[in-house]
Design brief:
single chain; alpha/beta; Rossmann fold; 5 helices; nine-stranded mixed β-sheet; 12 strands; Ubiquitin-like (UB roll); three-stranded mixed β-sheet
Length: 255
């Protein structure tokens, strides 16, 4: 009786197992087909890069970065490595920071943060604008009206991209900080050609004798304070000597 019962159940069990196998195989086939469809869709023309949108403060920087970004033919918005775009943008010396994001289906958005010119270094007959960290940005033929000018800090400066040495950057920072505290960054030109006879000159041509580079910032501020005090009294100084900060002297314009 038990043998007969077993013989009637076995075909049913085999049939169920066969159905499960068929069902599993069908599921695998459908899953593979679905995966192939999805991969084909995301790699297809719908997600092709149609536009690289660059946001920058100056048009010249945006154009330079656009020229540096090289995307392969048929680049895909989802799979294009964003790090490659960041590296290409940072190769522009005037770019400080970069953010890149995907805007589906077909746009890559590049946001640039540019270095700000903080001073102008006189270089022959032209001026090299530099950032506060000493990075050379761009060369100009005209003196910028809103930046301090520093003469003699470097004998030669290739731009863009070259950086000042640590010592040069320290001198630059002192000059920038003093001119900002004065409140008129473009008012002075500071000549550091001779580190023992540093001098500064106002727009009006009044000379400040500063002496050595020691306490450079304080000497510039002292010169500016004495100059403004004299002008407020209606006096016209030819030069102001603050080499000895405790005993500054000045000479009036004569004749």
């Amino acid at each position: 009786m038990s043998h007969q019962a077993l013989s009637t159940r076995t075909p049913v069990t085999v049939a169920l197992a066969w159905r499960r196998s068929v069902s599993t195989a069908v599921g695998v086939v459908l899953a593979v087909a679905g995966l192939c469809f999805v991969l084909g869709f995301v790699q297809g023309p719908f997600f092709a890069v149609r536009c690289v949108q660059i946001s920058a403060e100056s048009r010249s920087v945006a154009y330079e970065v656009a020229d540096r970004i090289k995307l392969p033919q048929g680049a895909n918005t989802l799979f294009t490595p964003l790090d490659d775009i960041v590296r290409a943008a940072l190769a522009c010396a005037r770019v400080k920071q970069v953010q890149v994001r995907r805007k589906l289906p077909g746009t890559l958005v590049v946001v640039l943060v540019e270095y700000k010119p903080a001073a102008a270094l006189r270089s022959g007959q032209s001026f090299v604008l530099v950032a506060e960290d000493g990075t050379a940005l761009v060369r100009r033929q005209q003196r910028p009206a809103d930046l301090p000018v520093i003469t003699g800090l470097v004998s030669r400066l290739e731009c863009p991209g070259q950086r000042l040495s640590r010592r040069q950057q320290s001198i630059l920072s002192e000059c920038i900080a003093a001119c900002r505290q004065i409140g008129d960054p473009g008012w002075l030109e500071i000549d550091v050609s001779d580190s023992f006879e540093v001098a500064c000159y106002t727009r009006e041509g009044v000379q400040g004798k500063l002496g050595t580079l020691e306490n450079l910032r304080e000497k510039i501020l002292l010169f500016a304070a004495i100059y403004r005090s004299l002008k407020a009294e209606g006096k016209n100084p030819l030069y102001i000597d603050v080499r000895m900060m405790q005993r500054p002297v000045w000479r009036p314009v004569t004749g």
